[in-house]
Each structure stands twice: as structure tokens, then as C-alpha cells.
């Protein structure tokens, strides 16, 4: 499908500059409106998914974030962005983890949340984890 490419079983590369109607990846639905800007598409994806990671294909830290979340029982939506699309993220980091629509940051911030005991309650609060 144009604009959407599966990179592995749990990563989808999404070209936000092209037109994609609706597609299903596992249990996650990604829909893109033709008229939306890259920034609007990213913001909509953030609001539609309780846990979403935006990353570059070359970033190994994304893999570590996914593994940490998976050990807790959460399977985040992972979107690989091109260099020009990374600049459209509403955060200053090159990789962006968003939980419940709020930017958490990168791996260091995720680990800090986990070690402090705040990660699981936050995931439960946004409906990404049931305990």
C-alpha cells in the first residue's frame, strides 16, 4: 500500500507525505486524511493511540523502549519517520514516546518513569495496561 510499509512484525514505516486511506496493522488502525499536513497527521496519531513511539529506522533505542514496554505488557504503536518528518514531531527529541497524548521523551525518560514507579500507573490511566 502506498505510503505504508511494514518493517517488521511490530514496526510500520509511514510516509506522511503520501496519501493512505485506512489500513490495519495487527490490532491497530492507521488512517490518513489526504488533506492533512504532516504535523496534523502526527498529532492525530498521537491522540488516537494510548502509547505511540515515533522513531527513525536507524535508531536502536526504539527497540529497547519497545522491549521495556513489552515486558510490562504494553505493545506500543511504532511509526518510523523520515528525517524531514521527524522535525514535525511536537517535541525536541529525535525519537518521541507519547503516552496518553503527552510527550514522555526518549529512552532515558521512559526508564526514569519505570524506575520511579510512575510508568505502570500512567499506562493504566491511559488504558494501555490493565492490572
From TrEMBL:
It comes from the Eukaryota. It is found in: Cytoplasm. Residues 51-86 form the Glutaredoxin domain. Pfam families: Glutaredoxin. Its main location: cytoplasm. GO terms for cellular component: cytoplasm. Keywords: Cytoplasm, Redox-active center. Coiled coil: none annotated. Belongs to the glutaredoxin family. CC-type subfamily. PANTHER family: GLUTAREDOXIN (PTHR10168). This is Glutaredoxin domain-containing protein. It comes from Arachis hypogaea (Peanut).
Amino acid at each position: 500500500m502506498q505510503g505504508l510499509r511494514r518493517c517488521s512484525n511490530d514496526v510500520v514505516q509511514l510516509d506522511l507525505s503520501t496519501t493512505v486511506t485506512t489500513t490495519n496493522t495487527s490490532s491497530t488502525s492507521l488512517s490518513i486524511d489526504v488533506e492533512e499536513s504532516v504535523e496534523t497527521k502526527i498529532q492525530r496519531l498521537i491522540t488516537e493511540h494510548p502509547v505511540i513511539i515515533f522513531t527513525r529506522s536507524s535508531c536502536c533505542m526504539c527497540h529497547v523502549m519497545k522491549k521495556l514496554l513489552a515486558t510490562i505488557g504494553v505493545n506500543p504503536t511504532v511509526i518510523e519517520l523520515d528525517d524531514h518528518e521527524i522535525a514535525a514531531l511536537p517535541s525536541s527529541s529525535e525519537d518521541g514516546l507519547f503516552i496518553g497524548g503527552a510527550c514522555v521523551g526518549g529512552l532515558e525518560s521512559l526508564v526514569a518513569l519505570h524506575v520511579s514507579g510512575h510508568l505502570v500507573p500512567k499506562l493504566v490511566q491511559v488504558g494501555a495496561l490493565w492490572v
